[in-house]
Amino acid sequence: MNAYHSNDLLVLLKQMPILKSLDPNQLADIGACFQKVPIAAGEVVIEEGSPGDYFYVVFEGQFQVSQNEQYITTLVKGDYFGEEALLFHQPRSATISALDSGILLRIDAEQFYALIEKYPQLRKNFSVTAESRQLAQKAQFDFLGKDEVIYLITRKHEIFLLLSLIPPIIASLSGIPLAIFGALSATLMWQLVLLFGAAVLLGGGVVWGIWNQVNWGNDYYILTNERVIWLENVIGFYSSRRDAPLTAILAVNVLSSAWGRMFHYGSVDVRTYTGSIMMRNMANPDIFESFLRGYREHAYNRNRDLERQKMEETLTNRFKMEEQGLIPAKPIPPLVSSLPPQVPSSSSFGDFLETFFKMRYEQNGVITYRKHWFVLIRKTWKPIMVCFTILILAAYLFYRDTVLNASGFFSGYVWGVILFFLLGVDLLWWVYNYLDWSNDIYRITPEQIFDIEKKPLGKEEKKTASLDSILSVEHERKGLFQLVFNYGSVTINVGQTQFVFHGVAYPDQVHQDISAFMEARLRKKQEQEFERERERMADWLSIYRKQERKRP
User: Fold this and answer.
1) 488, 511 in Cβ contact below 8 A?
2) Taking the alpha carbons of 537, 538, 544, 548 in that order, is the dihedral positive or negative?
3) Cβ-contact 18, 291 below 8 angstroms
4) For 371, phi and psi rounded to 5 degrees?
5) In this structure, are strands 44-46 and 95-98 parallel, antiparallel, or unpaired?
């Protein structure tokens, strides 16, 4: 087959984010390498497990991606595939088949290797996207839509992982001399104390380091064909997903220091109608920003084509109904501005255990916040100190009775019963304070916000408001403790009243969550307005048609 040259091809290559860094002459050089391959409906382009031989770009048509005979996603014009097998010299990871007749553009392996050798940035871009696909397959993100495709995944730069490992390494190493001093100590009591302290430092440092590494690995910055996503998870305490549709993004900025430019890390600020998402300290921010800009343009063009297609379908259906003598259905009513309170149903015992210490969790599209764990500590420090006192006293009595063989006012059995009773009372005291912390929650649903306060075995107060009635949202952190531990208050102004989320962790992210729900609500209303506008336009054209037919 001959190389495929056309202005349409160059326009397509120019719109592909992976080629954004290349100038027109370089794009023309790459375009000259492509071959045009017509594909029939149902034809299998590549088979899972087969060797890699070509790199493909979709020029026309739709192509289904499946893995182990399970549907993954659908590729459309401008999407590409096949680079992963060529880059990593491995078999094809998926099967690609045509859903309808189309056209593919392909480059053979030899030309592909020549191009990435000639343009190093192209090799880097391909490597990043191929690694993103592999990471997406391992992570198995369950929040993605049916036809949502992950184009790029990155994490915080590895340097921040190394920095987070320094404190646990120091803690572990400091346990070594402590263990040596304990082994050389002359008294058994000091040996036990020092060896116990060394074990705590060594074991705690290892656990701390593993915990930091897992937490680093749980944070993702994701770009799909529909949105940009920031996933953040602090194991057992906090989980967050913040996203913005590509069509709602107003601007994208990269912020980087001199060190960041040297080590290739920085922050990407994604600004939307309702605020911004600051994705801090990510690796390769320039690549992420370039891809984000490219796919944002692609999303705008896709939405424009989709709206034109919906308008054509509306007119076609309307005219068919008129020809058949049917009465068109009335357009959907406008979205109501306020909704009756709908308090989410109570969670199961399994959900209670899963969210035991979490300060933020999401279930079925509802985000729930608790006050910061520092507030929990302030409520529970007294029973915790009593518990430590009881345990220290129990350890002393055990040491007295077993090592010193001394006797006291009460026998060890009597002391055991007393301490066990006190420990039970103290545990109930702690549980009461925990429930007092746990029951004060703030919730956001796709339609409303809730402020729920409940005293254990006491009164319960609930406040609710529609997202449509929110006038403004603001957050603040006051004092040293709130700045250090990153918690504060979020104020939502609703008419003449205020909802205040007191003591929530990461108040800036709570602010963003509320803004994201408001934005989603606004998009839903806009979509309904567009549908009403299409129906209105169809009405006008229908009337015009009837008037034209009446003319002599």
Assistant:
1) no
2) positive
3) yes
4) -65, 160
5) antiparallel
Sequence-ordered alpha helix ranges (H) in 185-284: 188-217, 258-263
As a whole number of angstroms, the distance between CA 471 and CA 147 comes to 35
Of 510, 181, 139, give the one whose Cα is nearest residue 361. Answer: 510
Tell me the C-alpha distance between 490 and 472, whole Å: 11
Give residues with Cβ within 8 angstroms of 441, minimum separation 6.
368, 369, 370, 450, 452
pTM above 0.90, yes or no: no
Q: Is the dihedral of CA 69, 72, 78, 80 positive or negative?
A: negative
Distances (CA, A) of 486 to 163, 372, 374, 483: 20, 9, 10, 5
d(CA 223, CA 243): 10
Cα separation of 68 and 48, whole Å? 8
Question: For residue 136, what is the enclosing H or E element?
Answer: helix 120-139
Q: How do strand 150-154 and strand 220-224 relate by DSSP bridges? A: antiparallel
CA distance 395 to 329: 79
End-to-end CA distance of the chain: 57
CA–CA separation, 510 and 506 (whole Å): 7
For the chain, how big is the Rg over CA atoms in Å? Answer: 31
Q: How many whole angstroms from its chain centre is CA 124? A: 24
Whether the CB-CB separation of 511 and 475 falls below 8 Å is answered with yes
**Residues contacting residue 155 through CB under 8 Å, at least 6 positions apart:** 216, 217, 219, 220, 221, 282, 283
CB atoms within 10 A of CB 133: 19
Question: Comparing C-alpha atoms, which of 111, 85, 130 is closest to residue 30?
Answer: 111
Q: Could you report the per-residue pLDDT of 396-449, keeping only the tens digit for each? A: 777 777 766 666 555 667 777 888 899 899 999 999 988 888 888 899 998 889
Q: Fill in the DSSP letter of residue 194.
A: H
Say how far apart CA 292 and CA 282 lie, in whole Å.
14
And the tokens for 108?
């053979």
In order along the chain (552 residues), what is the average pLDDT of each group of 10 residues?
A: 62 83 85 90 91 90 87 84 87 90 91 90 85 81 76 90 93 88 76 84 91 87 87 70 80 90 90 79 89 83 76 78 67 48 52 75 86 87 90 79 63 75 91 88 90 83 85 78 82 83 86 81 81 79 74 67
Strand partners, 488: 504
